[in-house]
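Worked example 2:
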Amino acid sequence: MAVTLINPFTVPEGREQEALAEWEAAAVFLRKQPGYISTNLHEAIAPGAKFHFINVAQWESPEAFQAAVSNPEFQELTKSAVENFPHYPALYTIVRE
């Protein structure tokens, strides 16, 4: 069962480039993992939006996603991002089209 990851990020003003660099490093790793399908990073255009960036990614299964993010290499790679940019990942399935 394919799933969609929706992961909004809180980014302090002036730290957008740092957040983008952190996201890109994580994305490079995740693109190489089994079960990865795609990802897109969205940026808010409204000033003062609660979440500056929202990542939307597709995975072949919840298990593939969990295996990728549980990988010790990924954990080390994203340690700084987790500390600096609060985010709220969750997996979703389509219920209506």
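DSSP finds four helices and four strands in the chain. Residues 23 and 57 are 12 Å apart (CA to CA).
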